[in-house]
Specification:
By secondary structure, the protein is α+β, with helices and mostly antiparallel strands. A 6-stranded antiparallel beta barrel has the order 1-2-3-6-5-4. A hairpin with a 2-residue loop joins strand 4 and strand 5. The chain is globular and about 45 Å long. It starts with 5 loop residues before the first helix and ends with a helix.
Length: 136
């Protein structure tokens, strides 16, 4: 499996990432596995990081359903490519934590979900700006 230190990933990012909590379900496009579950950790305009118990390979293509907390019955459908994976250091201390963190580059969003996904990200930007200006 391919892995990369988090510091290197941060240096390569074009867009800021924002912490987020959302449940996801995912499966490989080329596979017969059933849907698995994970948790979003952060999100940017072109990708996100999630935690799960499976270690993926660089280039794996996943179909992902994102369940927003305020609309859990209407998931966003995203297709993404695995661009990095690493062991989750928190899993050593907390056995309930996900074993791996996985970085995804978004390849596409279902056409009917594009506006919702954009709003989902923009809401994170607005929340971060509110926190920033509140601290000033």
């Amino acid at each position: 499996a391919w892995s990369l230190r988090e510091e290197s990933v941060e240096e390569k990012r074009k867009y800021p990432r924002f912490d987020i909590k959302a449940n996801i379900k995912f499966q490989k496009v080329q596979g017969v596995e059933s849907l698995q579950e994970g948790h979003l950790k952060d999100i940017s305009a072109e990708g996100f990081c999630f935690g799960c118990d499976e270690e993926f390979s660089l280039g794996d293509i996943l179909e992902i359903e994102v369940f927003e907390q305020h609309d859990p019955n209407n998931p966003l459908f995203v297709k993404g490519e695995v661009v990095w994976t690493q062991e989750n250091p928190k899993s050593q201390e907390d056995h309930a934590a996900a074993k791996f963190l996985t970085g995804i580059k978004i390849l596409g969003v279902r056409e009917t979900d594009e506006a919702r996904f954009t709003m989902y990200y923009c809401e994170r930007v607005i929340d971060e700006l509110r926190r920033y200006y509140h601290l000033q």
